[in-house]
Design goal:
Blueprint lengths: L1 H10 L3 E4 L5 E3 L2 H6 L12 E3 L4
Antiparallel strand pairs: 1-2, 1-3
The structure holds zinc ion.
């Protein structure tokens, strides 16, 4: 189960979507968790992972 989750994370690795303007951002999930990742367009740090569900 854990390995499956890891594989899924790796597949969509480092791609996040801005909740504000919906642009895709390639940034490490570590930075996102630290709150350092920002949208290039609108400067918001409100991001969600690319994957759904
Ligand atoms: Zn944005």
């Amino acid at each position: 189960m854990v390995k499956f989750e890891e594989a899924r994370v790796r597949k969509h690795k480092d791609i996040f979507v801005c909740r504000k303007c919906k642009s895709k951002i390639k940034v490490s999930s570590f930075k996102v968790s630290q709150g350092e990742a920002r949208c290039r367009k609108c400067r918001r740090s409100v991001l969600r992972p690319k994957r759904k569900k």
